[in-house]
Structure formats: C-alpha cells, structure tokens
Amino acid sequence: MQSDVTIAGPFNILLVDDDQATRILLTRILQQPDYVFTEADHGNKALDLLEKSCFDLIITDLRMPEVDGIAFALRAHARWPHIPIVLMSGYFTEAAWKLDSEVFGGFIQKPINREVLLRIIQRLLAKSNSIPKPQ
Questions:
Q1: How confident is the model at residue 102 (pLDDT cuts 50, 70, 90)?
Q2: What CA dihedral angle connects 37, 33, 31 and 39, to 10 degrees?
Q3: What span, in angstroms and rounded, lies between the C-alpha atoms of 11 and 110?
Q4: 36, 12 in Cβ contact below 8 A?
Q5: β-bridge partners, 11
Q6: According to the model, what pLDDT value does residue 3 have?
C-alpha cells in the first residue's frame, strides 16, 4: 500500500478481541514490516498489558466478556490519553459512534476492510508520532 506519509517504526499495536480467529486474521491482513502486534482476549488482560509495556496504538473490539470494549477504551484513554484507540465492531451502538467522534481516533465496522483500517492506522500513527509521549 502506498502512503504519502512517512513515519518511523517499529510500532507496537495492542489488538484486543475475544475472538481468536479475528485476532489471527487481523494480524495476518495488517502485517507490515514496522507493525508488532500483542494480543489480548479481553479488556482486563489488555489493561494489564498496558501497565507492563509501551504501545503506540490500540485496536479493540466493542463486544467482549468481563470488560467490554467501551469500558476498556474509556479506562485506557483516561490512563494513557496519548495512545490512539481504534474501535471495531459488527454492532456499533449510538454510544460507540458518540465516543468515537468525541474521544477516539477511529472506528471500523466488521467485516474489516483491510485498506480502510490500514489508512486509519497510518493516520493515527503519523499523528501520534508527532506528539511527545510521557516518560
């Protein structure tokens, strides 16, 4: 995929989805030389990973057990506001649309369109790459 924005990687991306097949599919279709994926199958595990590692981007499903994607995204954004978050779901609610437009970097509906998601990722990484990160 051609891009008119040059950004330096590698980029650590946290992929949060309770469906293992979706996580596998996304890591395969989004495979880029500068993208390193870490997977979590629910929001609590993702929050634990965020405490232990540095991430450049979060992609999260909205419908998950334990901590749903909206609750996870709100907690992650409150603690790590510099990390862009992409919301994804086959079941967008009005609350998710409102959250996206007010707080988060993007949303994508399932089934995932690879080119659209890659453009969202590139835009967010380019934008966040120009913002100083907290030490």
A1: low
A2: 0
A3: 23
A4: yes
A5: 35
A6: 44
SS3 117: helix
My answer on whether omega of the bond before 81 falls inside 30° of 0, hence cis, is no
Tens digits of residue pLDDT in 16-49: 999 999 999 999 999 989 999 999 999 999 999 9
Q: Is the per-residue pLDDT at 98 higher than 90?
A: no
Look up residue 63 and give its amino acid.
R
Distance CA 125, CA 44 (A): 24
Three-state SS at 78: helix
- pLDDT on residue 68: 82
Q: Which of 22, 129, 20 is nearest to 82 (CA)?
A: 129
Which of 9, 17, 18 lies closest to 55 in space, CA to CA?
9
CA 39 to each of CA 6, 33, 36, 83, 130: distance values in angstroms, whole numbers, following the listed order: 26, 17, 10, 16, 25
Rounded CA separation 110/89 (Å):
5
Cβ count within 10 A of residue 42? 18
- For residues 103 and 76, give the distance between their C-alpha atoms in angstroms, rounded to a whole number: 11
